[in-house]
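Re-run requested by the PI after the first attempt was lost when the workstation crashed. Everything re-entered from the original request form. Ligand of interest: farnesyl diphosphate.
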Amino acid sequence: MKIPRHLAIIMDGNGRWAEQRSLPRIAGHQQGVKVVQEIVRECSKLGIPYLTLYAFSFENWKRPQEEVRSLMELLTLYLRSELQTMLKENIRLNVIGDAARLPAGVRSILEQTRSATEGNQRMTLNLALSYGSRDEVLRAVRRICLEIRDQRLSVEELDDEVFSRHLDTAGLPDPDLLIRTSGETRISNFLLWQLAYAELYFTETLWPDFGREDLHRALEEFSRRERRFGLTGAQAQREKLSNREERH
Ligand code: FPP
């Protein structure tokens, strides 16, 4: 099975899962956290070097206050309970998004976890929190404009690579595969720049029902797809072979 270097997941369907069981929405999020724990472990076991989870979008701030508060609480509990696992399994935490909007307590535990796991190398768990891709791109553009104004960067120097370095995901490779659960087939303002060449995989399964077998199914489908990056099939094959030779 081909393992993506970077897997990104839009975890969707927690609310519907709860509604189907006549439970409060938060019960769906609680079950969602259990699935996060299982999927993080499995990705690390499979040797996936980068995993990005869309845990809280910019638009999610508009949800009822009670739900936002519960999600922040769940996130705090998750980080507290997972620190030991992250240290044991050599997992590094990274966060993308507009952290300034997060409650101080959440920011502080995120920072503690991030610095405690900084040296870990097996897998980077990248949490998208208070994240919106257009917001991220605009923040990057503003920073670039200031650098150009202050003559720390010239207009000619600005290319794909320089732009990527100004995004929250600086230092992370672009995702190879995006999974979205719950039957929705949208990108929803997630990693718009970074997903340019990613394979997209949509499943009807709701996030709280998503398990290791579902992950394996997505990876098997990914293994079968031919990624061409705009080349012809024959060119892409040649490129793949020469990359393989270079690595040996
Ligand atoms: C989408 O379901 C999910 C979210 C908005 C939040 C995802 C959060 C978790 C899985 C738990 C917290 C995360 C971590 C990393 C500990 P939805 O509520 O939009 O579902 P619906 O579309 O069925 O209403």
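Saved to the shared folder this time. The chain has a mean pLDDT of 95.
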